[in-house]
Every structure is written in C-alpha cells, then in structure tokens.
Amino acid sequence: MRVLLQRTKAASVTIDDEIIGEIPFGLCLLVGFTHSDTEKEVELLAQKIAGLRIFEDEFEKMNLSLQDVGGDILSVSQFTLYADARKGRRPSFTDSAPGNKAEVLYNLFNKKLETDYGFNVETGVFGAFMEVSIVNDGPVTMMLDSADLAK
Fold first, then answer.
1. Which domains does the chain possess?
2. Does the active-site annotation cover 80?
3. Radius of gyration of the chain (CA)
4. Which has more confidence, 127 or 110?
5. Active-site residue 78, yes or no?
6. Active site annotation includes 119
7. pLDDT (tens digit, 9 = 90+) per residue, 5-49?
8. pLDDT surpasses 80 at 96
9. Active-site residue among 80, 94, 115, 141?
C-alpha cells in the first residue's frame, strides 16, 4: 500500500464540475494498493498517518500531528502510484491491485481513519475520473509505503 501524503491549506476533488469532497486544511492522501495488500497494511498506514508529526508548533518545528491541529483528510484513490515506468515509455500498472480488491481496502482505510482515529474524511469516487485541487502547505509531500514501514 502506498500513500502520497500532502499537507494542505485546502483540497478538493471534482467530478463533472461538481465538488464531491473538500477540506479547508489538513492532509490530502493519494492512496494506492498492490496485490499483496491486506487489512494489516491498511492499519499500519492509518496509524502512521494519524500520528505523523508534520504540522508546525509555535517554534516552527514539525512537531504536531493532524489530530493535534484538528485537520481533515481528503482521500483519493490512485492506482497509478504502482505504475512501473522502468521499461519503454508507457507505464505498466500490473503491480496495482485489481479494482474490486482495491476498493474494499480503500473503503476500509477511510473508515479506520474516521472510526479509529476520529478524522473527518472526505473522498472522491473510487475508479472515477477526477480533478484534484491541492494547495500544498510548505510544501510538505511524503511517500509512505507499507513495504518500507514493515522493515
């Protein structure tokens, strides 16, 4: 499981000129899954994101978590996080989990962030073509990979 995390001043997702999900500030999460992902990876990354101290305190040090600052989450499914562009010019997406499996894990991930950690989680529509607007704060952008965290 991979999550491209961006600290945001604002973020929204639009489909056919209609805003589907929107947050005033917090984190925008682009979320992708691979074939071997399970509930274990979902829990690992949800826990990591909930406690990650990437917001500045009064001394301008990244010392506060999303929970500490009361921010929201915009979570967007993103199968292209598992693109393989090593060969040729057209990326392969064979490392991405099949849609039906990824959708179950994506919904579980968002539910865990809401239920277990108390976040307001806005989303796009799984599998839809979406326009995502992100006002990156910092900029702060991090790639989280469950394979790296499990080491």
1. 2-145 (3.50.80.10)
2. yes
3. 15
4. 110
5. yes
6. no
7. 999 999 999 999 999 999 999 999 999 999 999 999 999 999 999
8. yes
9. 80
For position 151, what pLDDT does the model report? 66
Active-site residue (options: 55, 79, 109, 119)? 79
Mean pLDDT of the chain: 95
pLDDT tier at 51, thresholds 50, 70, 90: very high
Contacts 24+ apart (CB under 8 A), 95-98: 95/34, 95/35, 96/32, 96/33, 96/34, 97/33, 97/34, 97/35, 97/37, 98/35
Supply 123's token pair: 């989303």
Q: Retrieve residue 89's tokens.
A: 């010019």
Distance from the Cα of residue 3 to its chain's centroid: 5
* Cβ atoms of residues 144 and 27 within 8 Å: no
Which residue bears the tokens 């005033």?
24
* Among candidate residues 24, 38, 115, the one with its CA nearest the CA of residue 74: 24
Catalytic entry in 55, 78, 119, 123: 78
pLDDT band at 78 (very low <50, low <70, confident <90, very high): very high
